[in-house]
Specification:
Elements (H helix, E strand, L loop, with lengths): L6 H8 L21 H6 L1 H6 L3 H14 L4 H13 L3 H14 L4 H13 L3 H9 L4 H11 L7 E4 L3 E4 L8 E6 L2 E7 L5 E4 H6 L6 E7 L2 E15 L2 E11 L12 E3 L1 H4 L3 E5 L4 E5 L10 E4 L1 E3 L3 E8 L2 E7 L9 E4 H6 L10 E3 L2 E6 L4 E3 L2 E3 L4 E4 L12 H4 L5 E3 L1 H4 L2 E6 L4 E6 L1
Parallel strand pairs: 4-9, 5-8, 15-22, 16-21
Antiparallel strand pairs: 1-8, 2-11, 3-4, 3-7, 5-9, 6-7, 7-8, 10-11, 10-23, 12-24, 13-14, 14-15, 14-19, 16-22, 17-18, 18-21, 19-20, 23-24
Length: 425
């Protein structure tokens, strides 16, 4: 989830937000920028720029010259994980952890490789070795998931109408038979309110700390027996909830459905037709109007290539949960893209000035929007989407594309073929 374009409303949305602090990923030290020639030849610089295929070729050359190059193996594993190439990710990350047992990030990424495949038991010992209290909590959660996780029952596919499009797409779903309203947000995992978790009889197996609405919160981790969306029921799945009080300002949804559920399906968020469509991952895609590459960073952060005007294409995130906004970037990137920044109407978030923008043109491939409202931060800060996640993921991110951008489209997330298919309705 991301910050709202209307910042007073963002405090309500933060109540349900599962931001980067809820992900298992850890920050990666960014390689220092060298000369232009180094940027072309050095795989670290290519990776930093988001040129993953070229970087992989460079790392393979390094590894062929020195099979004990732990860094090259680790980066090849990370690049494979970004594309959900699990066999390659497992092979290279296993090599990296064997060569460098102190490489915490590779242990975490190897664990994430297993988590994405629902092989939770194999992730547990890896998470226990990192020394991180957060990883230990997730290891406890995964150790309690017995039998087959993420069991999908009922119809092979389901189309669930939106109850509303704004402030975010909202559908009805049920938790252990208890119906409720849920936001759809690719910047989240699967999260519940404390109230519905208690009504559903969920048991907290472990806790981690986080920040919500500017305050320290306790995030509970548990196992959900049944989650039903339309004609599909999912059983035996991990879930999170937290114990902050409901904020004022009207009715709140019972939770958020995000990327960790979406990647178990071929998922279409049909903004124009106002429906969520879930199909088997093996389903044949319809021909989309536009198609761009898809990567998955951390545990729930989809990425692709996008442009701000003529600046790009470069890596952008796809966190759809920005209320009232279609683009998040920084003043630095806005200047590079010749986007006018409204310095006369600043907002302050976490002590950082954030200014309104309305770019003439932003695009994902040939999917183009004009004059979409957005924001440009004076500098990045924890929780700021897109550029604020660059240090965590280890590569440059120029922007985040969010809710308002997608309204004329149906957007299909193919986490098997790793494509984002955008269709104008």
């Amino acid at each position: 989830m991301t910050l709202a374009g209307d910042f007073p409303a963002s405090s309500r949305r933060a109540f349900l937000r599962e931001t980067a602090m809820m992900a298992a990923a850890v920050p990666m030290v960014l390689p220092s920028m060298g000369t232009a020639a180094a940027a072309v030849k050095d795989p670290d610089q290519l990776f930093r720029k988001g040129e993953f295929d070229e970087a992989a070729r460079g790392y393979r050359r390094l590894l062929s010259k020195d099979p004990k190059n732990a860094h090259a193996a680790a980066q090849l594993g990370y690049i494979a994980l970004l594309s959900n190439r699990f066999a390659a990710a497992e092979r290279f990350l296993s090599t990296a952890t064997a060569l460098d047992p102190g490489d915490v990030a590779s242990h975490q990424r190897l664990a994430e490789c297993y988590v994405r495949q629902d092989k939770f038991a194999r992730a547990v010992p890896l998470l226990k070795r990192t020394g991180s209290p957060r990883d230990a909590a997730f290891a406890t959660l995964y150790a309690h998931i017995t039998g087959t996780p993420w069991q999908i029952h009922g119809a092979r596919s389901s189309r669930v109408p939106f109850l509303q499009l704004d402030p975010l797409p909202t559908i009805e779903a049920s938790v252990n038979g208890r119906a409720g309203r849920f936001y759809l947000d690719t910047g989240a995992t699967l999260g519940l309110t404390q109230e519905i978790a208690e009504e559903a009889g969920l048991r907290s197996l472990a806790t981690v700390s986080g920040i919500g609405s500017g305050q320290q919160i306790t995030i509970h981790l548990g196992v959900l027996e049944s989650f039903r969306i339309g004609d599909i029921e999912i059983r035996n799945l991990p879930v999170q909830w937290h114990d902050t009080q409901s904020p004022p300002g009207g009715a709140q949804p019972e939770g958020i459905i995000g990327t960790t559920l979406f990647y178990h399906f071929l998922t279409t968020m049909d903004y124009a037709g106002q429906a969520l469509v879930l199909r088997p991952k093996s389903a044949v895609q319809e021909r989309g109007t536009y198609r761009v590459p898809l990567w998955l960073a951390g545990d729930h952060s989809p990425c692709t290539r996008g442009s701000l005007g003529d600046y790009g294409p470069h890596i952008v995130t796809l966190d759809t949960g920005g209320i009232g906004t279609g683009i998040h970037t920084t003043v630095q990137y806005a200047k590079r893209a010749d986007i006018k920044v409204d310095y006369d109407h600043p907002n302050e978030v976490n002590g950082v000035s954030v200014y309104p923008i309305r770019p003439d043109r932003i695009s994902l491939g040939k999917a183009i929007r004009r004059n979409v409202p957005g924001s440009a931060a004076e500098k990045t800060f924890p929780g700021y989407p897109g550029p604020g996640q660059a240090e965590q993921f280890g590569f440059e991110i120029i922007a985040n594309f969010s809710h308002e951008f997608f309204k004329p489209f149906a957007v299909t997330f193919d986490f098997s073929g790793m494509n984002l298919v955008i269709t104008r309705r």
